[in-house]
Write a structure and sequence with these properties.
The chain is α+β, with helices and mostly antiparallel strands. It has two domains: 97 residues, NAD(P)-binding Rossmann-like Domain (Rossmann fold), CATH 3.40.50; 127 residues, Orthogonal Bundle (N-(1-d-carboxylethyl)-l-norvaline Dehydrogenase, domain 2). The chain is 53% helix and 12% strand. It has nine helices and three strands. Strands 1-2-3 form a three-stranded mixed sheet, covered by helices on one side. The longest helix has 26 residues.
Amino acid sequence: MAVKAGAIEAVVEQIAPAVGAETIIIPFLNGMRHMDLLHARYPGHVIGGLIKIVAALDDQGGAVQMTSLAEVTIGSLPAGPPPSWVKHALDVAGLTVIEAAEVEQDLWEKWAFISAAGIVTCLFDNTVGNIREAGGLPYLESAIAESERVATAAGHEPREASQAQSRGILTEPGSAFTSSLFRDLSAGKTTEAEHILGDFAQRARVLGVSTPLLDLALVRIRAAEAARSAVAR
């Protein structure tokens, strides 16, 4: 299952005729809301999955990989190894397949990273390198720390390697990195802002974690989407 967030509810129902006794559902989406929906609808059939890749579509609709990072991580929820055929099916050239004993931890770590990435690139409407060059390093670091506090409060404190990767990508001098959320917003496409940042903010409220930069980024994105909707009407 690899669809944009706006299609989740429809797809969860559309796949029902194909889900049999031995079916395994692997969602490759960001965030955690889809996991709640799938576990409720297909208990016992869902395993965790996430992809780490930086890519975009070109003007002809072709996929352009923007960095060498290309990893897919799978693991059962609750903990336990997925069937061996799952890894075999995903084992293709150019993609590293990882089996994780704690895939929920991996999901939260990625969610914290993409939330921080979405916050800074959408809030400042720019690349990481340009934001840093403009004196924005303290805000880049604050967004990372803010997102990691939410994950920690949820019981999934990012591990040292994850923290290092986030800081390496989101504070690199001269980096052309932008989030997919920012690229969709800039292109006037439907975004996953509510699924990624909105749900993250809602969980932060429940957990009692203050997220001022996240809240500002959401206002900026919602205002842009409201303006676009007004023009469309």
